[in-house]
Amino acid sequence: MRARLYSVAASTSLRERTMYLGNFTASMLTYGLFVFIFSRVWAGAYAGRSEIAGYTQSMAVWYFIVAEITSFGFGRYFWGLSRDVKSGQVAYQLGRPYDFVAYNYAERVGGSLADAAVILAEGLAVGFLLVGTPPSAGGGLGAEILRGGLLAVSLLLAGSLNFLLHFSISLTAFWLEENDAFYWVYQKLVLVVGTLVPIEFLPDTVAAAALWTPFPYLSWAPARVFVAFSPADALSLIARQLAWVAFAVLLARAVFSLSSRRVALNGG
Amino acid sequence: MRKWRLAAYGRFMAAAFAANVKSVIEYRVNFLVQTFGMMLNNAAFAAFWAVLIGRTGAVGGYGFQDVMFVWGLVSTAFGLAHILAGNVRQLGRIIMEGSLDVYLLQPKDALLNVLLSKTDVGAWGDLLYGFVVLGLLPGLSLERLALFCALAVPAAVIFASAFAMAESLAFFMGNSQGIAGALSEFLLSFSLYPEGVFGKGLRWVLYSLVPSGFVAFVPLRVFRSMDWPLVPALWGVAIVYAVLARAFFGLGLKRYESGNRMDTRV
Question: Is the pLDDT of residue A152 over 70?
């Protein structure tokens, strides 16, 4: 019964998002611009060398294309959630007969599926134009299909993890009205630890430490599944993403449980 | 007569700035959070460049200090443009909604009036970031600080003029927010990356339609060689862009249709 409710929330949000195709224009233009600029930056960085930290120029460009999908496709939950808390709109949902975390996940991530699909399609097209075909999955059509499937799973987990962490940060608005600073710090850590450059580019100690944080599993994991595919590595990355999603679910529920005690609902 | 008009506009700009500063100070926590956030945003890219240049050496002709200077200068100029002309990114929406009337009925120039009537709180972080970066670069001196300021002002005028032109497209296209946003994003993004990586094919665009050359590439060359004689040329380019922005806005104004809205300025 509940599952049907959440799937209806997700599909309604998805249909609403795809109703106006102009909604995608701004993010598509910005994403395309970034991919173009970074493809030129990588061309400059790879001048006179064929490999950096195990990545060829083509791998680095395709890495960036996939790593940015989480930010562009599944990236803007904080502002909406935080605004709902600050404006009191959240009170409307708290009294409803559904799980607050699950409902918000279904509604917001459901709508994001359209953004992620559009950005992925654009990324593939722009990538082909800029650097040609992506690195091979290394085993014919079957391996390519398997890679595509595991990439989709990895991206969905990255998007889910991003939502849950945004959710936890946004609910700090129950204590601090000016909670934007927490989000800024989070967003920049995501950018530096695995989005702009693969974590293999970071100094060894920093890269080793980063693997114990959730940040690489938002962008590095799906990008790595795509550019350096092996079934065993991909499954290992997905397993680690699942572990972080499980942790983030517990965190989101704990933050919600604590914060919802601070809500005073008055009729009217 | 002309001298008096310039003095009056100078007083008007100072009064608008003072009013905007007062409104910022009213929300101190918000101001500090936004300032901190913008500086953090810029610092994240500094980390990216440190990692990349640490691995590869110079990229597109830029070493780490060059990248930091460009980020600092562009950040300060972008911040200054949005502190003084905080409405510049809202101009298209104001035109589209037919809300220009309140500015048209006042005796001051409509474009200047609408641009100066608001400030962007987060822009203070951008403004300060450039000076922080300059302070961290080796060889800080009064002359370098003066040159930095002399380069930041025309760059800010070019930013504001280019954004105003992009937003003025709303006179001709109605809802031009997508294209105006893209043009603005292009200008900012191309300015922040090494000129050398873009190749010769894009050069004419980067010195005309998207004037990154005048807000970042040429200022870097000037700063590297402390080439003061080129500074007036950049001020001249800035004046040309300002005049073009004013002319383009004036051209669009002939097509403007009021939204018959009741607006007040408080």
Answer: yes
